[in-house]
Amino acid sequence: MTTDGALARLIRSSADRPAAAEAEVCDLCAAPVAEEHAHLYDTGREEVCCVCGPCSVLFAGAGAGDGHYRLVPRRRVRLPHLDTTVLGVPVGLVFFVPRADGTVTAEGPSPAGAMRWEVDAAAWKQLAGTCPQLAGVEPDVEALLVNTVHGLDQHWIVPIDDCYRMVAVVRREWRGLSGGGRVWPAVERFFEELTERP
Questions:
Q1: What is the pTM for the complete model shown?
Q2: One short Pfam family name for this protein (predicted)?
Q3: pLDDT for residue 50 is more than 60
């Protein structure tokens, strides 16, 4: 074995490490995950975790994960116009998450991440009375995503990971105090790329 051969292997392996470190892995077992993969919602930490196919199966049944982890569903449903003013949130880009404890939170993106505030649960029930699909939103892992910025009228039931992706888009594209010229076209592209899924 020559020194050049060993040194060359060391350099190659060091060069490969950053690429391997950037590859997404399952947050439970550290196995590599595909680009399109499932997510779990950690109810204790209130965050989304990446999960591989075999680990996702462990959380597919009702009651799996003892309530600590919930498998994030994949369904997306485009809704007709909803008058969300009853919810008392004066923001045009927001998502509403019913919680397992009966509360409802509203979260809106900002350059620093998501802002959160409580919504009156009775107001949520009143809105759900006008749109039967809202009654079936799974607590903690699905949300009503609303975009009425610049005269748009977009209302979706989406998985919670879609909401976090939208927050990331705003955070990535925001410039200056007002957002700059990139953020709203990026948000519009995000909504244009949403597709309905059962």
A1: 0.85
A2: DUF5947
A3: yes
